[in-house]
Amino acid sequence: MALLELRHVDISYGNRVTVKDCDLTLEEGEICSIVGESGSGKTTVIRAVLGLIAGGGRVTAGEILYEGRSLLDLSPREWRALRGHDISMIFQDSGAMMNQTRRIGSCFVEYIRTHENVSKKEAWEKGEDMLARMRLPDPDRIMRSYPFQLSGGQRQRVGIAMGMTYQPKLLLADEPTSALDVTTQAQIVRQMMELRDEYGTAIIIVTHDIGVASYMADRVVVMKDGVIEDQGTREHVLYETDNPYTRKLMEAVPSVGGKRYV
Amino acid sequence: MFDEKDLILEARHVTRRFPAAGGRSLIACNDVNLKMYRGKTLGLVGESGCGKSTFMRFLVWLDTPSEGEIIYRGMDITKLKGRKLWEMRQHIQMVFQDPSTSFNPKMRIRDIVCEPLLNYGRIHASEKDAKARELLEMVELPGDFADRYPHNMSGGQRQRVAIARALALEPEIIIMDEATSALDVSVQETIIELITRLQREKNITIGFICHNLGLIQSFAHQIAVMYLGNIVEVMPGEGMADVCCHPYSRALLDAVFDTKMDFSKKIEPIQGEPPSPLNIPAGCPFADRCPHCQDRCLRERPVLKPVGPDHEVACHRFAKGANG
Ligand SMILES: Nc1ncnc2c1ncn2[C@@H]1O[C@H](COP(=O)(O)OP(=O)(O)OP(=O)(O)O)[C@@H](O)[C@H]1O
Ligand SMILES: Nc1ncnc2c1ncn2[C@@H]1O[C@H](COP(=O)(O)OP(=O)(O)O)[C@@H](O)[C@H]1O
Ligand code: SF4
Ligand SMILES: [Mg+2]
Ligand SMILES: [Mg+2]
After folding, report:
1. CB contact under 8 A, B41 and A262
2. First-to-final CA distance of chain A
3. CATH fold of A4-260, please?
4. For an engineered disulfide with B46, which of A186, B226, B236, B241 has Cβ 3.0 to 4.6 Å away?
């Protein structure tokens, strides 16, 4: 049985069907990248998996199965049990999702205590330990900082650390490195790969960086106008596909020592 | 490759200090020396916060250096005031990163692209329609877009409008700060094709800020790498990957995920983050992250030295055996 399966899923905002007939399967420990132009529906798809589509969007056809069980008819209580524990999400700017008036440590402790019956002290230690595992220098100082006192890369790693606390089986990451520079991006990509290698976490990553998508993924999904245009191994999308849209997208990727425009 | 007679702008010993808490000062640019050449692109790369925007902002008078001079048309433009400054501004224009926030949402595209022309009295209000159409067509947008508002366009289209507006005054130099970072790859490519075509046709000089060395090397003639406010390497854009040698530049290059890379190889990004610009180390600014750091690097700051044609490096490893 697959870990996650989307079968003929339509997702609509109001009356408009934004994502059409989406079929996607993810095995345990598999990494899948979703690429495609802005507005093609990438965020919409992964938010649907977490039952968190913004602005009144909803799944209007098809099924989403997690370990064979339909996610679409879960009660709010069942959702809470699943989110954070089995399935986690990392957003483009974790910093913006954080409460700016509270220190990292206080949020982290609260997060842990909603999932686990532990003392504040134990929760604090667990949080610090997660930050250390994300190779954040000086975890104690980070726990005592406000989000705005951290750099974008540090905030993002805090977001990943929270998302990974319960070693979820499925991690959904929406443009987790797009706001970061190349060095920080490389560090975070490496950390996500290590999560898979160490804990067998399956990952869906949405990114517009085709290089990152290809490097990380066992499978690359190409979306266009709400439809999955093409999908396959990175060799398929990079070299083998006949799909004209995928080819156009791949040819537009700048490459060191490749095409020059001047 | 670069002919000194094409030198159009030169920054000499430019430093910017910002006052910080506790009477300290933050050094955002430290003794920067750079040259820009007519019709060529200078790419400025480095991690976020290293001082790229701080430097480029001097060229469009959004800020003034604490020390140093910037020579353009025989004058130190950092000292200009009043009428002279107003006149000079026409020749250097800027395009910003986020096309969705850089326009007034209540203005139509026609008024956005023609505003600079009207300010400088280059056209009459009656010529606006025709001029807007011409400018939009130059950036390969339908002339009818003149009637639209910015929010009715995609990010890539808005960035074309920003370019049309920046080019309206036919400037000699155009500065682009992460101008394609918010766009997806296919749109990014069309923008790069557009600006390189306009550069050829109009002999424009471009200053392009970017943190992706993979992108910048595809169209820059000259690349400057910045670390903690210091220029650590200046090299030609063409064949950059073969000559680039500063340990920091190499690290930046290794951090690029390229579709032609070896996917089985584990990436080895440099760890940690740059030191705070409030505490710039005494020796080499990169010393605490550099795999080749020696005693000397901790004591003595390396300065830019020529190592090849149009190629300078600030690193003690390359101080000897310089051939240029
Ligand atoms: N709350 C909403 N209400 C109405 N339409 C929406 C809403 N959110 C997204 N859409 C529309 O749905 C489509 C898909 O949006 P989505 O955010 O999934 O795109 P995306 O592929 O993630 O794009 P990007 O790369 O820009 O993040 C777009 O046309 C968008 O305008
Ligand atoms: N107006 C300002 N006041 C104080 N510090 C500033 C100001 N502008 C920039 N800085 C600091 O100067 C450094 C360089 O910033 P910036 O030039 O924006 O970097 P980049 O464009 O390379 O990302 C950063 O440490 C930044 O926080
Ligand atoms: S001067 Fe020393 S520390 Fe600095 S980059 Fe060169 S080898 Fe590394
Ligand atoms: Mg999105
Ligand atoms: Mg900047």
Report:
1. yes
2. 52
3. Rossmann fold (3.40.50)
4. B226
